[in-house]
């Protein structure tokens, strides 16, 4: 990781209306994969929505490459370099795979990520390019959601629960994709309930407790220490690896 963080979140405060969810939240990351784990209700999705501009920042800063992007509209944050793969995928049921990617294809000429590059990363999508979003399996939908985000050619991709409801073979595909992105210079922030999937995607894990980053561990530490799983995730050794 470089000395200056690509993403530097400083004393962030945000929430829903008068309800404060994130309070004094800080962390930094470079061109790497970083996981954020924690019990339900700790503010993980709120953090994602705040980073990409869907929720307003009431205090603190979000610096991307040293530039403060907090308070900008979502499209301005996307233009600055943060792409989002939301929980639930949010695809258009009636649009085909090709049509989803075509919506952003005009901005990709001469850039690393084009629809053709997405099909190279996810060959299954190339086989299903004429199928509508509603006709895709959950795994195919998630590949398409990732591919759509890649077409923004950002510096950081935020993924909220990317492995949710997916078969192990599809999780393998996503893990390989995350590693490839980092190797190519794209940072990935992964919010996950599935601890084993989170650790496979990101060796560095941040734990959220009550709207703050409470602790940081390596993935191996979290997987091999039941006491940490019980303390921070509320699960035992046997089921903690599957959250």
Structure, described:
The chain is α/β, with parallel strands linked by helices. 37% of the residues lie in helices and 26% in strands. It has a domain at 7-90 and 155-240: Rossmann fold (3-Layer(aba) Sandwich). The strands form two sheets. The protein has a six-stranded mixed sheet with strand order 6-7-8-3-9-10, sandwiched between helices. A four-stranded antiparallel sheet has the order 2-1-4-5, covered by helices on one side. InterPro entries: AAA+_ATPase, ABC_transporter-like_ATP-bd, ABC_transporter-like_CS, BCAA_Transport_ATP-bd_LivF, P-loop_NTPase. One of its GO terms (molecular function) is ATP hydrolysis activity. It comes from Streptomyces radicis.
Features:
Rossmann fold, globular, 10 strands, 4-stranded antiparallel β-sheet, 243 residues, 6-stranded mixed β-sheet
What's the alpha carbon Rg, rounded to whole Å? 17 Å
CATH classification, class level of the domain at 7-90 and 155-240: Alpha Beta
Note the main sheet: 6 strands, mixed
What's the N-to-C terminus distance?
27 Å
The number of helical elements comes to 11
- How many DSSP-defined strands? 10
How does CATH name the architecture of the domain at 7-90 and 155-240? Answer: 3-Layer(aba) Sandwich
